[in-house]
Structure formats: structure tokens, C-alpha cells
């Protein structure tokens, strides 16, 4: 029997996982080998790559770096992170005192965000105290949750998409991160667990970096040859340059059971698209088989999608985005009597 002490510490972020009974949320994955993150302690991970995905969003790859004490024990281990789960990243509170150099990759974003901060808040660094997500932790660190988009269990590697926030404490710290640096992660925190063919269709609404948990779930279902669920992704971004994982989504489009529609909220063109919902400037930027609409997602779009998705009971809906976005989708679903809804 599992005792309370054996359970990993609460992530303290107020997420579904913390609010609900977390005993049912931490599930061992089907493997005879143990996962590196079992036990709920922070573990060292080497940052092996950083790349830019959009102006403010970057993709970081991490690989487990066994410590000297761990190395023999960790030899036969794998890294299990179930799709849609998040991890906790921590960094030292006093990092500003160590003069860490900024990574060149972040310079263009940094220049613009500093300007924004100057206008809005009186300058970067205006926020003195870093909020703590992981309340169980000593005051030497601050921590933030992030959701892996891709996991390589055997290589003990995972990737996260991180949208940098102006004046955000972790966002500031991450700009000093270089490939070769070590950071500490713990987890995993699982809120939603998909079971193979649990429903006929899965309809996902994602906004911006809210794509992370949804992408990892969709990718896992497509990887599973025995899962025949029909998958629909409705993805909302500001503009075409802000579409995250665009190439990966295009590849997913080759599967018979996957389709995606992207809605852009910021209209920058001057053609008639502004009034007609169709835009000729956009068509030149759209790749083969992409469905991109030059307008915000509206209630009518959600209603049409649900009517096409068949019986309400056979549909599972996932939502991940800002509060305002989630509310818009949720209100429509409630009106249409859709009950199987999970919000990240
Ligand atoms: C379960 C879960 C999973 C998540 N997964 C991801 C993920 O995969 N990818 C991702 O990018 N994010 C994810 N997040 C969000 C992430 O954890 C952080 O909240 C985010 O990166 C911001 O952290 P920060 O330390 O940079 O900002 P914080 O320091 O926490 O600041 C929060 C906000 O306050 C604003 N702020 C800070 N200082 C000031 C100031 N002086 N004046 C005005 N405004 C200010 C910042 O701009 C920011 O918008 C997730 C969150 C949760 C709960």
C-alpha cells in the first residue's frame, strides 16, 4: 500500500492536479524499469539545445545528467512522462548575483521586451520578488511548471516550448541559459490521462503555447497504431509567424484521422479579408493542405465543428489557453450540452 509519505510532493501551483486528489493522478507507467523522475525529487538535466520557434517562444531540449551518487542506480532507468503531464523547473533565487551572461539567441526578443517593460512598468527588474510555485521548497529557489511536448524515454530526453514573458522571473533566468548548462526538474504531474480509443473523437482547442499538452497527447495517439480516434485540433494564434510546431502539425496532417484548423486573431493585411473572412494575402503564405483562417475563432465556428464531430457523448474535448479563451470555448460547449471536457 502507498503511504502519504511515498507520494511525490504537491507541485503547489493550484493546478487541477493539486486541487484534486493527487493520489490518483500519479500513475506508474507500464514498464519494468523505473523512471528517472520517480520519487519526486529534483533531478539534474543538461540543456542540449535551444531554438527559436516564434518571436517570443523557444524550444529547449534537456537530457538527464546522472549525478555521481546516482550514476550506478540510474544506469538502467528510463524517463517516463505521460502525454499532457507537466514538470516543475527550479532555479536559484539569487541567480542575478552571479552575473550569468545572456544567450545571444534571446537578444532580439530581449531588446523589444525591455522597451515594452520600460513603457509599461518602469523597467525590467521592477519586480523584486520571484513568486514560488512549489510551496514545499526551501526559499533558495523559485519554480515554474512546464509541459514537455516530446519525450525520448530511452535517451532520457525531453523538450519544452517556453513562451518568454516580459519581466517574468523564469523568463529572465532562461535568457541566461546556454546549451551545456544544467537545470533541475522534478515531476511528473499528470492531470489528464487518455486511454486508447476511449472516445470516437477528440476535439482539441489550443491557444498559443497552450498547444504544448495538447500536441503531446495528439502525437502519442498518432504514434499508437491501435488507436483509431478521430483527432481535430483547433489552434488559435495571433498571426501566421506565431504558429508553433507548424511543420510537425503539417506532418500530422498526413494521418487519416487527424485534421487541424488554425485561426489567426491579428489581421495585418489591407485586402478585403478584413470584412469577408477570406484573405488573398494570406493564401500565398499557406502551405499545401494547411487550413488557416484569417479571423478569430468565434462561437459559430465552435458550433459548426461540434455539429460535424457527431454524437456529443462520443466526443472528448480538451482546452488549453488563456482564461478568456477557455471561457469562450466552454460557454459554447455548455450550451451544446457537451459534457466530456477537460481544461488544462
Ligand atoms: C500546469 C502548467 C503548465 C505550464 N506549461 C507551460 C509551458 O509548457 N510553456 C510555457 O511557456 N508556460 C507554461 N506554463 C506557464 C509557466 O509556468 C510560467 O507561468 C511562465 O513561464 C511565466 O513564468 P515567469 O517566471 O517568466 O513569469 P512570472 O515571474 O511568474 O510572471 C508572471 C506574469 O507577470 C508578469 N510580470 C512580472 N513582473 C512584472 C512587472 N514588474 N510588471 C508587470 N507584469 C509583470 C509577467 O510578464 C508574466 O506575464 C505552465 C503553467 C502551468 C500552471
From TrEMBL:
<keyword id="KW-0285">Flavoprotein</keyword>
<dbReference type="InterPro" id="IPR017938">
    <property type="entry name" value="Riboflavin_synthase-like_b-brl"/>
</dbReference>
<dbReference type="InterPro" id="IPR039261">
    <property type="entry name" value="FNR_nucleotide-bd"/>
</dbReference>
<protein>
    <recommendedName>
        <fullName>FAD-binding FR-type domain-containing protein</fullName>
    </recommendedName>
</protein>
<dbReference type="Pfam" id="PF00175">
    <property type="entry name" value="NAD_binding_1"/>
</dbReference>
<dbReference type="InterPro" id="IPR001433">
    <property type="entry name" value="OxRdtase_FAD/NAD-bd"/>
</dbReference>
<feature type="domain" description="FAD-binding FR-type">
    <location>
        <begin position="40"/>
        <end position="195"/>
    </location>
</feature>
<dbReference type="InterPro" id="IPR017927">
    <property type="entry name" value="FAD-bd_FR_type"/>
</dbReference>
<comment type="similarity">
    <text>Belongs to the flavoprotein pyridine nucleotide cytochrome reductase family.</text>
</comment>
<keyword id="KW-0560">Oxidoreductase</keyword>
<dbReference type="Pfam" id="PF00970">
    <property type="entry name" value="FAD_binding_6"/>
</dbReference>
<keyword id="KW-0274">FAD</keyword>
<dbReference type="InterPro" id="IPR008333">
    <property type="entry name" value="Cbr1-like_FAD-bd_dom"/>
</dbReference>
<dbReference type="InterPro" id="IPR001834">
    <property type="entry name" value="CBR-like"/>
</dbReference>
